[in-house]
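(Deposited chain)
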Amino acid sequence: MCLESGNGTLQKNAFRNRFTWLCYEVSSLTIFRVWVILCVPLEIWSKASGDVLIVSLFDYFTVLMLEVVLFWYIFRLKRITSKELDQFSREIIADAPGTDLKDWECVASHFNSYLYERKLWNTKYYMYNGADCYKAFRAHLLTPFALAEDNPKKLHALEESIPCGKEALEVYLKEIDKYWRALKSEKSSSALDLGNTKLPRDVCYCKLTWGSNFYMQNPRCIVLLLPHQFALYYTASFQSTYSRLACVVGSFILCAHVLYKCFQERVSYMRLENRIQFLSVIIKAQDSFSGDTWDAVAKEMNIYLFEQKVWRSDQFFFDGAECEQFFRRHFADVPVKKSSPTGDLNSELWPYIKEALAVCTCDLQV
């Protein structure tokens, strides 16, 4: 709604993709123009000289200077947000965003306009989209305030440095609570059909075959495994049997570690609304289903995550036991440890995690 009114601009509406936006942003920097004026003539001169050593040196120098330009851009990008957190908080208070990224696009749009109008940023396009804005909010406001809850001195220092920060958090948490209550009042859409729904445990030969399907459907795993596949290919050129064996064993261990890490970080695919849905399903499952509760939760979440295009198939959870382990690892233990394997505190979900713990059969204490 705010974007239609013309108040503010977003990169995604002005550029074809993120790469073209990045090129435009970097090219607007003064240091980039200095790099062009300095390095391009030197490159032309070095190529004209025909000396291989001179060409190599100037190529290296040009690439090195370009890396300096990119590092400077990243530094400025993070520094601006840190310096303008109070204004960022004001925009959040004004737009009251929740789980919907379109609301965060409004915040990003207004913040972009503020920075450009006051000449704090060179272009009208500081944040690319709502997802970037939400990520900045979690990194600079939500997580620091959550970590400072048990430290009154640190919390007071944060409130003094960001006067509107606490109010912005309250507005955000109010919207999350509104979404939570609306979700809890809804009846489970798939509760009536769960009797005919099968878990991967019932259709896969074993957990290993389900795991192999998981890795084949995960592009991140394939990309991370490519270096190990090349390493195995080149072991054939080794003459020593021991060298080949050492490379094969080492590559196998590294592959196993990569696959395990990918499996553990499945929670990163779930957006905030998906995590809230997971907690609400756990609570509603106590009254909506008969039989094994965690199996029922796993069935409904498999269908939900597939319908929401979070996962490429309806086999996110293998069975109820695996679903319970997932809840223990990524939700139930997080409020106690104040950390998580993915580095995401889920601090806005702590009250709802406690509510889920109160009704589920987990023997965990918060």
In short: Confidence is low (pLDDT under 50) at residues 336-343, 362-366.
